[in-house]
Amino acid sequence: MTLKILWFDETDLSTLGAGQVSKTLTLLNGLSKYVDITLLCRCSRPQILQKNLRKVKVVSLKPNIRNPLLRVFPHDVAVYVMRYMREPFDLVIFSHIYESLPLLLSSKLRGLPVIYDCHGVEQRLLQKGLTSKLVVTSMESLSVRLSDTIIVLSEADREDVRQLYGVNDGIVVIPPWRINNPCSEVERVKAKERLAKAFGNDIVNKTIVTFHGSLKYGPNHDAWNYIVNCIAPEVRQAIFVIVGKDPPFKGRKANIIFTGPVANLREVLCCSDVAIVPLTRVTGVNFKVLDYISLGVPLIVSPAVLRWLNLNDIEGTVIVSKVKDMPWHLKNLLGKGLKRTRWKKERSVEDVIQDYLKVFIETRERRD
């Protein structure tokens, strides 16, 4: 039996960028070989997205809602629900809590099974502010309580859902893929030469330290801000390359380079001697860390990352450091022969796809 699935994602997947976007696109492409998927999303470039998702029907909404009242109950999602929810979907999947309410309520009224594909527990990202806490906690509580199945990325997230919202049943942990695809020595040399050509010949003989992600995203913003203001001034003999959209500037200032978004992330990361991840807030899995390990890049990571990263799964140079101690650890590493990282045991994308298919079938059977 072919399952017909409606998948809703309120982010602009056509950016083809951040870790969560990359994860979703990879899942959609893999799952579309087995199930019939209609993707409902906010998309500034639907033609680009459709080109990357050949077997998925893409239905595009407006890219952004600025009115906070409409964001809580977005009118265009409601319009879609009224027009299309009579279609015979077997499952409804959503990935974010903010604009999914019309779809979630309509699905429950129709008796459709609902899966919440949770990238991370939002309440763990909360800053101080009563309004934020009330809105996020209410929306997330409603999402997990109305969902038949909640997919999380780690045991830590499963425990958070249990403790914060009192939900014990229907939580399934599906860890992400872990693939070794290391940069060759030729790739590393060529990548560094291209970087030097663009940003200065002195780069060839210096240690390259990298960080990447969506730079406007709160935890990533805090991380790159700390790198620029606290780490880079302390470690002037290294060049810091920060990759991602929404940089404070593009180009080089002193030993700091902001590239902006790049077409070939692997090419940039292959020139890395060390990756540094000074995150103080973490939910779900930080796919940037998966990228670094896959490519063989030595790491300095904060303890926050260990909510999902098991050091026993990795070989090579991985240093866990308090954020405030990272400049010292980085200076201590310079000039040393660092051992490239790798996964001791791989987990393929197909393994993850099969786990999702199993959840789809079990969720559907429970409702039947």
Write the layout of secondary structure elements.
Blueprint: E1 4-12, H1 19-31, E2 36-42, H2 46-52, E3 57-61, H3 68-72, H4 75-84, E4 91-94, H5 101-110, E5 114-117, H6 130-146, E6 149-152, H7 155-165, E7 171-173, H8 185-199, E8 207-212, H9 218-231, E9 238-243, E10 251-253, E11 256-260, H10 265-269, E12 274-277, H11 287-295, E13 299-301, E14 314-315, E15 318-320, H12 326-333, E16 342-343, H13 349-367
Parallel strand pairs: 1-2, 1-4, 2-3, 4-5, 5-6, 6-7, 8-9, 8-12, 9-11, 12-13, 13-15
Antiparallel strand pairs: 10-11, 14-16
Helix pairs in contact: 1-13
Tell me the distance between the termini: 14 Å
Q: How many domain modules?
A: 2
What is the CATH domain class of the largest domain? Alpha Beta
Radius of gyration: 21 Å
Summing up helix and strand content along with how strands pair, one would put the structural category as: alpha/beta
- Return the string of H and E elements: EHEHEHHEHEHEHEHEHEEEHEHEEEHEH
The CATH level-2 architecture of the largest domain is identified as 3-Layer(aba) Sandwich
Choose one word for the global shape.
Answer: elongated
At CATH level 3, the topology of the largest domain is Rossmann fold
CATH superfamily of the largest domain: Glycogen Phosphorylase B
Number of strands: 16
The parts where pLDDT drops under 50 for at least 5 residues are none
Approximate helicity band: 25-40%
Mean pLDDT: 87
Strand content: 15-25%
The largest beta-sheet arranges its strands as 3-2-1-4-5-6-7
Largest sheet: 7 strands, parallel
- Count of DSSP helices? 13
Oligomer: single chain
